[in-house]
TrEMBL record, chain A:
It comes from Bradyrhizobium macuxiense. The gene is paaB. This is Phenylacetate-CoA oxygenase. InterPro entries: PaaB, PaaB_sf. It holds the Pfam family PaaB. Gene3D superfamilies: Phenylacetic acid degradation B.
TrEMBL record, chain B:
It comes from the Bacteria. Coiled coil: none annotated. This is Phenylacetate-CoA oxygenase. GO terms for cellular component: cytosol. One of its GO terms (biological process) is phenylacetate catabolic process. It comes from Bradyrhizobium macuxiense. InterPro entries: Aromatic_CoA_ox/epox, Ferritin-like, Ferritin-like_SF, PaaA, PaaA_PaaC.
Length: 95, 330
């Protein structure tokens, strides 16, 4: 039981429907080859995907949730970035 | 996948924390926001969830044992393939859940060690033996049926990683219950001997399955906190009643008798059941069930016998890494 902890990997799967790889969970494996095999066994037992990415968890840099106010403020205040900000006369129809 | 009575929180070490942060946290929960791993959370929330999710994970892993017992003796190749797939699913469920528990800051190794040391609990139901093939049908039908009742509300639990793991688990769980019920239908339509075997299995599993939902509401002292934190959305007794009401018609369809002569339907349509023997539940949780020692011994043996594989994989990864470093240095 004294063995060191096995590295953690994040698993991303691209499903059949053509969407981008999506995070599905994580797993432990000693190297990338074993991580891919484990990802197949753990996350695609029912044909959930056509492609798998595994990424060492410690390679991910994440934003700080406690600073999300400041981080995302620029997007909150710019309503002119949305199409509904602009008036188009009704007689023009759908645009 | 199986949960039970895992919804108790710690009353003793609820440290006095920053009141403003705690209020903000509760406000987020009240607005049905999900709590994510790096968010601030009260220490008791973290501890309650770590225990609940890891016990849930241990239950999945230990739950492989009673069913694994019948893989080599399944009556047909179809049944064998299905049972093998089900047991593999349980393993997968255990791994999703360990991953969710780890996001709270305790490593899987530590969680597993706590279970092997007998310090962490798992669902009491897996301390009962699987004596006949009908037990495999009954486990799928009732144990997985009870687990589904418990787990569907957990898909909306306030902790994001747990809720997401439960969504995956619930999707896979319905196959488990249906394969179990199909085994029961086949036995009940078979010879008198086969039907008696199905009845015998129901007789043995009924009460332990009702205990899976945990102690009655009056006896559950910590339910309030878990409810306030939206970890738990229904009380033990509510879920138990829902399960009984769903199961009685299924037993009638099979032509089996639920081993509770006092059971009757009230004016609301709910099936009232006789008092549960909570002393038995307490004994099984305390380690004195029919199979507690066997289960732990089997888990320890598997862990020890797998040690060389873990070590070899680690050594291989280290060797490759140092070789790559040496090549890069040339």
């Amino acid at each position: 039981m004294a063995t060191p902890n096995t590295p953690l990997w994040e698993v991303f799967i691209r499903s059949r429907n053509g969407l981008a790889h999506k995070h599905v969970g994580s797993l432990h494996a000693t190297d990338a080859t074993l991580a891919l095999q484990a990802a197949r066994d753990i996350y695609t037992r029912r044909g959930e995907g056509l492609s798998i990415w595994v990424v060492p968890s410690n390679a991910i840099t994440a934003s700080d949730p406690s600073e999300k106010g400041m981080m995302f403020e620029p997007a909150e205040s710019k309503i002119y970035r949305h199409p509904t900000f602009y008036d188009v006369p009704d007689e023009v129809g759908h645009m | 996948m199986y949960t039970q009575a895992l919804n108790t929180s710690d009353g003793d070490d609820r440290a006095v924390e920053d009141a403003a942060r705690a209020a903000e946290f509760q406000a987020r929960i009240d607005q049905d926001e999900r709590i994510e791993p790096n968010d601030w959370m009260p220490a008791a929330y973290r501890k309650t969830l770590t225990r609940q999710i890891s016990q849930h994970a241990h239950s999945e892993i230990v739950g492989m044992l009673p069913e694994g017992n019948w893989i080599t003796r399944a009556p047909s190749l179809r049944r064998k393939a299905a049972l093998l797939a089900k047991v593999q699913d349980e393993c997968g469920h255990g791994l999703y859940l360990y991953a969710a528990a780890e996001t709270l800051g305790t490593s899987r190794e530590e969680l597993v060690d706590a279970m092997l040391a007998g310090k962490a609990k798992y669902s009491s139901i897996f301390n009962y033996p699987t004596l006949t093939w009908a037990d495999i049908g009954t486990i799928g039908w009732l144990v997985d049926g009870a687990a589904i009742m418990n787990q569907i509300p957990l898909c909306r639990c306030s902790y994001g990683p747990y809720a997401r793991a439960m969504i995956r688990v619930c999707k896979e769980e319905s196959f488990h219950q249906r394969q179990g019920f199909e085994i029961m239908v086949t036995l009940c339509r078979g010879t008198a001997e086969q039907k008696a075997m199905a009845q015998n299995a129901l007789d043995r599993w009924w009460w332990p399955v009702l205990m899976m939902f945990g102690p009655p509401d009056q006896a559950s002292q910590h339910g309030d906190t878990s409810t306030r934190w939206k970890i738990k959305r229904f009380s033990n007794d509510e879920l138990r009643q829902k399960f009984v009401d769903a199961t009685v018609p299924q037993a009638q369809f099979l032509g089996l008798t639920i081993p509770d002569p006092g059971m009757k339907q009230n004016e609301n349509g709910n099936w009232e059941y006789s008092p549960i023997d909570w002393e038995e539940f307490k004994q099984v949780l305390a380690g004195n069930g029919p199979c507690n020692r066997d289960r732990l011994a089997a888990r320890r043996k598997a862990h020890e016998e797998g040690a060389w594989v873990r070590e070899a994989a680690m050594a291989y990864a280290e060797k490759r890494k140092s070789r790559q470093l040496a090549q890069a240095a040339e």
